[in-house]
Design a protein that fits this description.
The chain is mostly helical and 234 residues long. It folds into 2 domains: 69 residues, Orthogonal Bundle (Arc Repressor Mutant, subunit A); 142 residues, GntR ligand-binding domain-like (Four Helix Bundle (Hemerythrin (Met), subunit A), Up-down Bundle), CATH 1.20.120. The protein has 11 helices and 2 strands, in the order H-H-H-E-E-H-H-H-H-H-H-H-H. It has a two-stranded antiparallel ribbon with strand order 1-2. A hairpin with a 3-residue loop joins strand 1 and strand 2.
Amino acid sequence: MGQKRSRQDEIVRELAHEIVGGHRPEGSLLPSDAELMARFGVSRTVLRESLKTLAAKGLIQPKTRVGTRVVERTSWNLFDPDMLRWHLDCGIGLELLAHLSDVRLALEPVAASLAAKRRSETDVALLHAIVDRMEAPTASPEIFAAADLDFHLTVARLSGNPFFRTASALIEVALAATFTITTPVNDPTAKAASCAAHRRVVTAIGDSDSEAAAAAIVETIRAGAARVAAAANR
């Protein structure tokens, strides 16, 4: 069963990369089941399960007596973690991450504002501890990125609004990719500035200053967006 599942995953990933990467344009038909079965060396059952997965994610749509057609990009579920990974795998994720900054600017300032109104002393101490992890001299890019992600997810949770935490969970893969790509660890000046900006968020939340908390978290998002843009232009 495990081998069958693994083979299905491989087929899903390979076809998804072809579609997301543009090798199979929107509106085009996939090869017939017989051709795909021969290509991947699998049974009809395994192939059908793989195609069902792609259809569930909005990439393809099977039609009787027509075939399986690639769906328009506007219908793809970009909140799906696998979809985000496939875009990153294909090297076209930076554009999505830039768009993600717009989503974050719409959500996170409100979450930070609410967190400032509802926080406890324990919450503030937790946020300070996360920034301490970011500031640590021994923090590797991976550790810094993980702490950065933890910080923003924690602010969403401290808002007390379950919709903010759910929204953050939906885009967690993209957030993790953003923080990994834009980590400033290798630039001491940029790292210090990032940590200071995050510390200002905590200070504002600790002071129950909603406006300052919102403004401070906007600063962190815009700084990250600038690093994404710089990465895209390399």
